[in-house]
């Protein structure tokens, strides 16, 4: 198991998390491996993908930082941890998932949209909060939140692409989650196009 603080350090360093939603385990694995070849280091395999646990187990044997996404309850979170997930991501905040992740010293990144949700998640020990869906907000929302909550770290996900990614990071996001762009690229143009897209993302964030 990767130490909790090491996971946070890697997320903050890489700044881009590839959110993978595949129609099956084979597709999700192919997209993930292409993203990794293109230089992405953090992968979030969503539990809307059939066989997500198999994908996590396979990828966790590599140098990638592999987490589980769309985790709706503690049972799914435990399944993901047993498969080798290094972090857990939800579209919402669930206190039972937070409790389980704290028990096993695993980062939990819950989806939050309101100040109340962010306060509750922070009080439950969540150090990075996922703003989801981010396409319903402007990057300036982060500065507005950090007025009353200066210690909140936010990772916007949903509607993030190469064109707006750096606007979010410059506004104070500690990382961003990107996903649909990679999946669409794979289905339209194949594996090598995903590799190239991942390279472009990482080059853009380095600039």
UniProtKB/TrEMBL annotation:
EC numbers for this chain: 4.1.2.21
Parts forming coiled coils: none
InterPro entries in the record: Aldlse_KDPG_KHG, Aldolase_TIM
Keyword line: Carbohydrate metabolism, Lyase
Pathway: Carbohydrate acid metabolism
Principal EC category: lyase
GO molecular function, one term: 2-dehydro-3-deoxy-6-phosphogalactonate aldolase activity
CDD domains, per database record: KDPG_aldolase (cd00452)
Protein family per UniProt: Belongs to the KHG/KDPG aldolase family.
NCBIfam families per UniProt: eda, PRK06552.1
Subunit-structure text: Homotrimer.
Name listed for the protein in its UniProt record: 2-dehydro-3-deoxy-6-phosphogalactonate aldolase
Organism for this UniProt entry: Bhargavaea cecembensis DSE10
């Amino acid at each position: 198991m990767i130490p909790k603080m090491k996971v946070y350090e890697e997320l903050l360093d890489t700044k881009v998390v590839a959110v993978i939603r595949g129609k099956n385990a084979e597709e999700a694995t192919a997209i993930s491996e292409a993203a990794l070849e293109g230089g992405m280091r953090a992968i979030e395999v969503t539990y809307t993908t059939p066989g997500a646990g198999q994908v996590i187990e396979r990828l966790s044997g590599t140098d990638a930082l592999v987490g589980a996404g769309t985790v709706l309850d503690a049972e799914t979170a435990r399944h993901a941890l047993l498969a080798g997930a290094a972090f857990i991501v939800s579209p919402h905040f669930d206190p039972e998932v937070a409790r389980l992740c704290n028990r096993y010293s695993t980062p939990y990144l819950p989806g939050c949209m309101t100040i109340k949700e962010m306060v509750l998640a922070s009080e439950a020990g969540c150090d990075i909060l996922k703003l989801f869906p981010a396409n319903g907000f402007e990057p300036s929302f982060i500065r507005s939140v950090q007025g009353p909550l200066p210690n909140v770290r936010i990772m916007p996900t949903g509607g993030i692409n190469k064109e707006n990614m750096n606007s979010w990071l410059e506004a104070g996001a500690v990382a961003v989650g990107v996903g649909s762009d990679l999946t669409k690229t794979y289905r339209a143009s194949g594996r090598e196009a995903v590799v190239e897209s991942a390279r472009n993302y990482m080059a853009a964030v380095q600039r």
